[in-house]
Design goal:
Elements (H helix, E strand, L loop, with lengths): L1 H18 L4 H10 L8 H14 L18 H4 L2 H26 L9 H25 L5 H28 L1
Helix pairs in contact: 1-3, 1-7, 3-5, 3-7, 5-6
């Protein structure tokens, strides 16, 4: 499962190159002045969303503990509060990655708007990305382990490296 951590780290680099900053506030202000980075970096944003699904072990990448197999794993070992905390941790991870995606690709918190509208728009973006997680879970089947590694090493990582070189070349020109 290491393949998605490598890709997730490299997928952030084109955003940093375009905004010329590692600060989320600067990335957000860059996108409020210019265009949301989801448009010029569309393949990177799709690969980031796929890597988010793999990182959070959500369907179709829920291989470590699939909820369909109720005879083994955490579904039989834990109960009551520990079981609830386990799932709250997974959903917390999903929300944190949705916040990252919102700031990196969808403009984050727009400083030019009033405080209440900017905060409402940020929450709306986060909820929309969380809805994407739930939508994918309800519509896609689970991958086999070899398919998961194939997507990570043969599709996402070369796409990430190629687009990183492409964006670097465009910014140098």
């Amino acid at each position: 499962m290491v393949s998605y951590e490598v890709a997730l780290g490299l997928l952030i680099m084109p955003v940093m190159l375009c905004s010329q900053s590692f600060n989320f506030g600067n990335i957000s202000s860059f996108q409020s002045i210019n265009v949301w980075l989801v448009l010029p970096l569309f393949p990177v944003s799709i690969a980031f969303l796929i890597s988010m699904l793999a990182e959070t072990n959500r369907t179709p990448f829920d291989l470590p503990e699939a909820e369909a197999e109720l005879v083994a794993g955490f579904n039989t070992e834990y109960s009551s509060l520990v079981f609830a905390l386990f799932f709250l941790g997974e959903y917390g991870n999903m929300i944190v990655l949705s916040i990252f995606a919102s700031f990196l690709f969808f403009g984050g918190y727009n400083i030019n708007l009033s405080t209440n509208i900017g905060l409402f728009m940020l929450i709306l973006k986060i909820v929309s990305i969380c809805f994407f997680f739930i939508f994918v879970r309800s519509n896609l089947p689970r991958y086999r382990y070899d398919q998961l590694m194939s997507v990570g090493w043969e599709v996402i990582l070369p796409l990430t490296l190629g687009y990183l070189i492409f964006i670097s070349g465009i910014l140098l020109i």
